Amino acid sequence: MPRPSDTRARIQAVARELFVAQGVRDTSLRQISDRLGITKPALYYHFASREDLVRSIVQPLVDEMERFVATREPGDARRLLEDYFELIWRHREVIVMVVRDLSTLADLDLAERMFDWRRRLIALLLGPRITPADHVRATVALGGMSDCSAEYAHLPLDEVKGPAVEAAAAALGLDAPA
Fold first, then answer.
1. Where are the domains of the chain?
2. What percent of the chain has pLDDT over 70?
3. Residues 6 or more apart from 19 whose CB is under 8 A from it?
4. What is the per-residue pLDDT for 1?
5. 3 state DSSP class of 146
6. Architecture of domain 1-47
């Protein structure tokens, strides 16, 4: 008999796959339980609601992003971009899931947190005194990298990271690496 944690992880994996393919709102808990060969009550044993299940899938991204912006120091902007890209790449399926169904942001109260993360990343990249034009360029840089992690999620990391980081660095006006 599978351990509860194994079943929980299997539920999350199947739910993530279906949420990415169909959207959160268009995926029923019945579809998830049917795909797993378990009953809906068995699914509810592990997750009290769809929101609970979605939150459990999104939470690792939230936790890692919180740690990332809390522990970074201003410094090497290019390195920060590279590390940020690797973080969002690790969570690209979740980003695709959220982008596919933006209401997920509201349902989980994530929209303001995401804007806060972006503001904190911009401050790390450019310092506390930035012009509105600098802020716009940084928003384009960070948003473009996030979009690349979603749009090109099917490609290998090494085909996406370099061009995405270089484009972000160019948008920020950073010098090309020597």
1. 1-47, 57-172
2. 93
3. 27, 54, 57, 97, 100, 101
4. 44
5. helix
6. Orthogonal Bundle (1.10)
